[in-house]
Amino acid sequence: MDIKLQYEEQDGPPMEPYQRVAAARNEYLQRKQEANQYKLRAEKQLGLRPCTAESNSKLDGQEQEVGRPENQHFLEDRKYEGQQEYLRQLDLIRQQYHQNMRQMRQKAELVLLYCYPPITLLRQCLAHGQN
Question: Whole-model pTM above 0.85?
């Protein structure tokens, strides 16, 4: 296997199993912390999370208003717009699905009509109540 963890790359005496487990756990926790920091940074850039510098500056010398923060309304509007866009995309997907199903049914009917005309004629007669 080509993938090696950081603890396996160390030169020196072989590690005991409990040391390997501890090293793997430490590496996992470090990567998890880095991933959380990356996620936090991305959320701040997207405006999903307020910047800590802004909230700290509000706390310095000013009392915060009781109630909702000023950017809360903006965040809710943005969330609502995102939900609406998602629903529009979902509706387009549904419409495309139904259109595809109609086309497939029409193609199947054409195949039956041209490949098996007696069966198709019999089906039409039975559907209309004629014998």
Answer: no
Asked if residue 14 lies in contact with residue 36, where contact means CB atoms within 8 angstroms, the answer is no
Buried b (16+ CB within 10 A) or exposed e, 86-120: eeeeeeeeeeeeeeeeeeeeeeeeeeeeeeeeeeb
Mean pLDDT in residue range 92-120: 86
Two tokens, residue 67: 């109630």
**Which two three-digit tokens encode residue 57?**
């500056």
Q: Radius of gyration over alpha carbons of the chain, in Å?
A: 32
Dist. CA 105–CA 55, nearest whole Å: 59
What amino acid is encoded at 106 in this protein?
A: Q
Cβ-Cβ contacts under 8 Å for 20 (sequence gap 6 or more): 7, 8
Measured CA to CA in angstroms, residue 110 lies from 69, 106, 119 at distances of 62, 6, 12
Mean pLDDT score across all residues of the chain = 77
CA distance 27 to 20: 10
Query: Rounded distance, CA 44 to CA 40, Å?
Result: 6
